[in-house]
Design a protein that fits this description.
single chain; 89 residues; Alpha-Beta Plaits; 4-stranded antiparallel β-sheet; 3 helices
Length: 89
Amino acid sequence: MKSNKQELIIVFKKNVHEDESERIMKSWNVKYRSGMDSSRGKIYFYATGEKYIVTFDDDDDKMKFRYNQYQFLPQIHQIYEPDWDIQKD
């Protein structure tokens, strides 16, 4: 399934509780939903914490979000662009 949307996957560390990850996501004022792409596989899924798909209106909004350096927050494991074409499961 190929998506034309401007999206990023936000992955929290395993020890971050869902309440805390939700609070952080809400504080960013972005459109998001729970989930991730399957390109990382099951081991990655179980080795990390909560995962969210963030959807942006356009590429500029996505780039502004990336420049905010959210990936350096201690609660964040990784922020990456989804690859909807890879199916590992």
